[in-house]
Amino acid sequence: xxxxxxxxxxxxxxxxxxxxxxxxxxxxxxxxxxxxxxxxxxxxxxxxxxxxxxxxxxxxxxxxxxxxxxxxxxxxxxxxxxxxxxxxxxxxxxxxxxxxxxxxxxxxxxxxxxxxxxxxxxxxxxxxxxxxxxxxxxxxxxxxxxxxxxxxxx
Length: 154
Prior knowledge:
This protein has helices at residues 3-19, 33-37, 46-53, 130-135; strands at 23-28, 58-59, 67-76, 83-94, 100-106. The protein is an alpha+beta fold.
């Protein structure tokens, strides 16, 4: 086998193996465990928590105004959607005076994978084939007595 053939074979193998590598990504809050461990119930308040951890990922809209910090690591194989591999959700609850009441952590055990209705959205009307969609308007444009001209039909 000539040298060029071997080099080409090695290049093809390297390309094939690189396509199998997964892409790792981080989404959301960057967790600093030392800062997170320093948040103490009864000692810290909303201002001190915001100075230590920054603005939360989101704040609850109903009931008590709990703060949530969410961090997710994902992996994605070639030609697929990213899938969460690990997640940390920190919920900081405050009392009426704005002092930290509780700090709760949870992980992947609280993640739910939902699929609302597969890949199709139900719509009203009739089902049409590809050819009906493609050729359905032939002869329809300008039909029905819509004459050319201005608003007075001239």
